[in-house]
Amino acid sequence: MREHQLLNKLFRVESFKIGEGTISGYIACFLAFLSFLGVLVFHFPQYLTTPELRQSYDADVIRQIMFVALVISGSLGLLNFVRNKNKRLGAFAWFFILMTISLGAHQVEVKNFESAKYYLGLDWFILDLLGSTLIFIFIEKIIPHKKEQAIFRNEWKGDLNHFFVNHLIIGFVLLLTNQFVHKGLAWMVFDDVQLYVNFMPFALQVFAVILSADLFQYFAHRGYHEIPFLWRFHAVHHSAKKMDWLAGSRQHILELIVTRCLVLTPIFVLGFSKTVIDIYVITVGLQAVFNHANVRINFGWLQYIFVTPQFHHWHHSSDKAAIDRNYAAHFSFIDYLLDTAVKGQKEWPDEYGVVGDYMPVGMWCQQLFPFTKSKQN
Q1: How does 35-51 read in b/e, with b if 16+ C-beta sit within 10 Å?
Q2: pLDDT in tens, 272-298
Q3: Is 140 helix (H, G, I), strand (E, B) or coil?
Q4: pTM
Q5: Are 230 and 223 spatial neighbours (Cβ–Cβ below 8 Å)?
Q6: How would DSSP label each residue in 56-114?
């Protein structure tokens, strides 16, 4: 509670007005903090970077982005500190700017290193958070579903903590997943099947990898809803009462691990190529964030084929007609074929969250929730 009150004093987010400096102060803090994390990554790449990810980006480009981020955050932080009565945001931004500069900032040299067996995915967190905020906050402001909903809505700090933890332990999650998939399911692999899959047209392979993963995800997702013990874990994800790009990060870590293992099973068994898997990973990342976002787009008849924000928002609705419906993550036609799609409702739901609103506030309380007694209805 004290931590929550302290954050509220430091980051006053009840209302933003153009010209008062709060928005620029937040941007300064955001960029300064990410720059600080970035310089830590340069110093300890063997422990703080994801091996699969660091092969896909150019370190020199990251250095340039960090330099620009420091310039912008420094300028906005100084402006906030000079012009505004509340100088907390400017001071907070400059604290991390000075820490980053003292550690070498964008000029840190990265020498040859060996990948550690255990690592934290800090680079994945930085790049994903930066990309998500730049893309999805912009989209939510251009074409919002609920225009009155603030960027920093209630409980956003807890969801940002979920985002941070889920990305930070990606190395641990991938290690467990690889152990389960490659060692536990090796008996399911047949060379003839994998050879046939690799001879399929590329577009068909992409469709097949997304469909097979979505079918496994569908039945796992349905199990989370229909089995009371599993629901206690999945209820964490459904407890968000407002939907935006960050709400999808609210997820119990054990559910994250189990679901990833199950979804990767058909991908491993069928033997899809790395390129096809990379496309699937990108699709999952973008669609997962987009479908939770506070955006209003009319997809017309495509909503009966693909999962859209409107389709998935109904999955999160506390409306009685929407309970245990719309399970698919990518292809909505799966729900229509299996008769689990929401039908006959109005265009968008009004309320979200778990029925009874029994979930505690804050990431750590939500992670502990499945193991505690509750007033769950």
Answers
A1: bbbbbbbbeebebbbbe
A2: 998 999 899 889 989 999 999 999 998
A3: helix
A4: 0.84
A5: yes
A6: SS-HHHHHHHHHHHHHHHHHHHHHHHHH-S--HHHHHHHHHHHHHHHTTGGG------P
